[in-house]
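[Automated response] Your request has been received and processed.

Submitted sequence:
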Amino acid sequence: MSLLARLRWFVARFRPRQAVRLRLVVGPIEFKREVEDMALVLTDEQKVSISLQPVTAAGNPAKVDGAPTWSSSDPSILALDVAPDGLSAVATTVGPVGTSQIHVNADADLGAGVVPLDALLDVEVIAAQAASLTLVAGTPELK
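Generated structure:
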């Protein structure tokens, strides 16, 4: 998938919430923009894989102690199927449209102590659009 296609995918699936700065550098081209914090938008017919990527303050990959715990603020809108290692989950829309929030909690201290880390993702479930039309004829009758 090209970089442009990935950016289009990203923009199509996320909606703004609060201002953050975005900086994208591709070769000699630099794109800077203040954008809104993102919320995932799914139709009531979709599911999505989500992975947890722990990083250090400098942005380097890091480990967490044990399996992170995941929860949905409204399981009647969004269900989670969490992988055994806790590093990924599949979020599936359940039925009604609405909003839910995915919360992930992990322990950053690899020793006996506990240093809690939290991640949140707002999810908005919208109605799927029509994909086709079907004509249904009634029973023929005399004129």
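Summary generated for your ticket: The helical segments are 3-13. The radius of gyration is 21 Å.
If you did not submit this request, please reply to this message.
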